[in-house]
Design a protein that fits this description.
- This protein is mostly beta strands.
- It has a seven-stranded mixed β-barrel with strand order 1-8-7-11-10-9-13. The protein has a three-stranded antiparallel β-sheet with strand order 4-3-12, with no helix packed on it.
- The radius of gyration is 16 Å and the shape is globular.
- It contains three helices and 13 strands.
């Protein structure tokens, strides 16, 4: 029996980008029409590679700087959740490039809470494995502040539960703007430690 089941839920790719430098003030993704995904992620991306140095997100597991598997090759956000964040901080829109995004998807409800280990599969067969919810951090806040003074500081609270997910490449292939990705979820019940 398959461990992952395809759902009827799909999302349309509305934006693609690549962070090509480590600038932590501007944190800008460069917009793209297409991403060629390899097992190392997106070539030339600041987040590419099969491994990475551990950061504060996993400090309970590893000392900072420990080499670990790279489940953070891509940062994927929802167009709907991005619009909610913009509304909450009082701006008309937020450029996904300012969040260091790799991909913006539209049409998948409650996107930031898609179960870890879910897959997003493109028509080319390229498949992304969802690692976990991406946490709001100071870098997008600073980048937003650079173009909307006084608004960036509201990013972290507004983005809580709306920041999207991180993902890694499970199958190589390309993704282009307009692709419709199908969601596949683990075929298991939710964890119930008391039940």
């Amino acid at each position: 029996m398959p461990a992952l089941k395809p759902t009827d839920y799909t999302a349309t790719v509305t934006w693609l980008g690549v962070v090509t430098n480590a600038d932590r003030v501007e944190l800008l993704s460069e917009p793209r029409e297409r991403l060629d995904l390899t097992f190392a992620g997106v070539a030339g991306s600041f987040h590419d590679g099969a491994t990475r140095s551990s950061c504060t997100r996993v400090k309970s597991q590893y000392p900072k700087g420990t080499e670990i598997r790279n489940e953070r090759q891509l940062s994927i956000i929802s167009a709907e959740e991005l619009a909610e964040i913009a509304n909450l901080i009082g701006v008309e829109a937020i450029d996904p490039a300012r969040l260091g995004a790799s991909m913006v998807l539209s049409g998948l409800p409650d996107f930031s809470f898609v179960p870890p280990s879910s897959r997003l599969q493109s028509p080319s067969g390229a498949t992304l494995t969802v690692d976990m919810q991406n946490r709001p951090c100071q870098f997008p806040a600073k980048s937003i502040e650079a173009v909307a003074p006084g608004k960036g500081r509201g990013f972290k609270p507004a983005a809580a539960g709306r920041r999207g997910v991180t993902a890694s490449v499970a199958r190589e292939g390309c993704v282009v703007i307009g692709d419709v990705l199908r969601l596949h979820i683990p075929d298991q019940r939710a964890w119930q430690p008391e039940g």
